[in-house]
Amino acid sequence: MKLSGWDALAARQPALFALVMLGLSLVINLILQPNMFARETLNSNMRVFLPIILLAVGQAIVILGGGIDISVGAIASIVNTVLATRIGLEGSPEAIWGFVFLSLGIGLLAGAINGFFIAYLRLQPIITTYATSFLYAGLALFILPNPGGGIPASMAALYRNSTPFNLPLAFFVILIILLIWLYLSSTRYGKFLYAVGGKAEAAYETAVPVTRVQFSTYVISGLMAAFSGIALTMLSGSGNADIGGPMTLNSITAVVIGGNALSGGVGGVTGPVMGAITLGIIQNIISFADIDTWWETFVKAAIIVMALAAPGIVNLFRRRRT
Amino acid sequence: MKRISIPPPVAALLLAVILFLLSGLLPNGFGSNLDVARAQALNILRLAAFLGVIAAGQTLVIISGSEGIDLSAGSVVTLTAILTYILVNGADERVLLALLVTLLAGALIGFINGVGITFLKISPFVMTLGMAGVVSGAIIVITHGNVVGKVAPIMTRLIARPLSPNLQIPNAILIWILFGILMWLLLERTTFGRNLFAIGVNRVTARLSGVDVTRMNLATYALAGALAGFGGFLLVGNTGVVHLQLGQPFLFPSIAAVAVGGTLLSGGKGSYWGTMAGVIVLTLITSLLTTMQMPESVRRIVLGATLLILISIYGRQRSLRQ
């Protein structure tokens, strides 16, 4: 089948849509906030966006592999409550590192549990991770029943105020992620990932280790959720068992804006990263647009739904035209 | 050796009886006092009635297949409960109007879900989760954080009290039984029911055999919304008060109840009888945890684990080798 014009472009560059959205939202934000590229403003924006970017990267990998992970927010919540209750306000650097590594372990374990049920027991991804999201959210609430706790001020400051080379810390994190992805997608594992997400049965017949690849995506997603939880904790400086829950839908939305197909096998990680930044900027714009406080939740939710609908609307019009 | 298979609804009912007897053995359980036992059983059934009505819509969308699910049910319940509360405002003559508005509001939200899922190809889970956010936002817009209203005396009389003083069964239970019969008729004795199972098994074959899949899908989600709306109406009639989180705790149990009742989460197979049994099981679990004075966190963990175990039993997908 030969694709022409827009279709060929969209197939080769799935992130193009994300890039356009990002550019558009950047321009609007710049009009409302002329100093947004000043070092301080840029840093204060990017440090807020980073947790959702990290979640979106993990979510993107799972969705590429043909699954979905509803539990990412809850995993981030567990990490947040563990860090906020265990390190203590006067924690030593050893304690900090110890619990940060423990958090990563928690993320890997939570992801492995998801992966075990989905890849090895062959359960449906959505309903399985929905069940585990309840389980994990319950665990977070068990660790910290009421919002509170805290981390050493130096730890929070490291995240909030670091601007190496006059650039926000988040830039470097994103750069590292994109470089890893660039390498990963060129390896055999990267090819397997697309094959499994495209059509698992066909991949299985061509000797792709489908089960192991599916399992690995949830482990990666759990790890990214743990990183997100660490970033969230350093950003907020305290703990809240419900902090991650609402972020799950945002992570999925970021992936959809990023041009990845929810059915799997199409897209990458660059698009979702841009999608997550776009979402953050849209939230920014809403807070600048001077909307009545009572309407804010509604407007934010409506924009999420519209963003989710956007690829579908585009498809609808393209089908009409041809 | 021939495997003995118990139909899931029967298994769920057995589980309910066992759980109920176990609850009697608790330190503050009913022990050997039959009157208390009967009162407690009636109380459980009365509480189950509301979850039962809410889970009815969930049963329909899950049977319809293609990962059908309605995560907006909780918010719709809250919205319609609040609408009823405001509209009725203590006057008996406005109850019917409130019921009508409630059903329409629910159906409209469900219809929008259906449009997003059918035409814009958004996955049901993501679409309804996004809609849940929009409805929550709308609730804030409508109420501005505080609700002024009152339920009418006739609602309390018809829902919360028994029909006559001699008959000690609260009307909610009778309403639920009647509702159950109607649901059975809908699923087993109408074209709608037949087509619903047909699209749940396989949408392509259903379309080829003359089922209007698009219309069925829209109707199913609209009906599910209306049923959630009816659940909100009943709920506020029973409690007499509303708050902004009234419906949310019903969402997860409504999905778990459908799974307990043996309805396949992949669609095409199930029954409302099963869901009714599942609803009783889940209400028992919740009330057991409340009697044991377990915190919210443990409740979530137990519910999440319950669903995970159930889908491990019922929800296995085909193995890749087949």
Describe the structure.
Chain A is an all-alpha fold and 322 residues long. Helix content of chain A is 75%, strand content 0%. Chain A contains 14 helices and no strands. Chain A is globular. Chain A starts with a helix and ends with a helix. The mean pLDDT of chain A is 86. Chain B has 322 residues and is mainly α. Chain B has one domain. In chain B, 72% of the residues lie in helices and 0% in strands. Chain B contains 13 helices and no strands. In chain B, helix 2 (34-63) crosses helix 11 (248-260) and helix 4 (95-118) runs antiparallel to helix 10 (213-239). Chain B is globular. In chain B, 51% of the residues are buried. The mean pLDDT of chain B is 88.
Q: What does the secondary structure layout of this molecule look like, with pairings?
A:
The complex is a heterodimer of chains A (322) and B (322).
Chain A: H1 5-12, H2 16-32, H3 39-64, H4 72-86, H5 93-120, H6 125-143, H7 153-161, H8 169-186, H9 188-198, H10 200-205, H11 210-236, H12 247-257, H13 270-288, H14 293-321
Helix pairs in contact in A: 2-13, 3-8, 3-11, 3-12, 3-13, 4-5, 4-6, 4-11, 5-6, 5-11, 7-11, 9-11, 12-13, 12-14, 13-14
Chain B: H1 8-25, H2 34-63, H3 73-88, H4 95-118, H5 124-143, H6 153-160, H7 171-189, H8 191-201, H9 203-208, H10 213-239, H11 248-260, H12 272-291, H13 296-314
CATH architecture of chain A: Orthogonal Bundle
Number of domain units of chain B: 1
Secondary structure: helix percent of chain B: over 70%
Total domains of chain A: 1
Q: Helix count of chain B, per DSSP?
A: 13
* Overall average pLDDT of chain B: 88
Shape of chain A: globular
The residue-averaged pLDDT of chain A reads 86
**Proportion of helical residues of chain A:** over 70%
Query: What's the helix-strand series of chain A?
Result: HHHHHHHHHHHHHH
Secondary structure category of chain B: mainly alpha
Rounded to the nearest angstrom, the distance between the terminal CA atoms of chain B is 23 Å
Please outline the major beta sheet of chain B.
Answer: none
Query: How many strands appear in the DSSP assignment of chain B?
Result: 0
The most extensive interface, with participating residues per chain, is:
A-B, 52 and 50 residues
Strand content range of chain B: under 5%
CATH topology name of chain A: ABC transporter involved in vitamin B12 uptake, BtuC
Radius of gyration of chain A: 20 Å
Report the CATH C-level class of chain A. Mainly Alpha
Radius of gyration of chain B equals: 20 Å
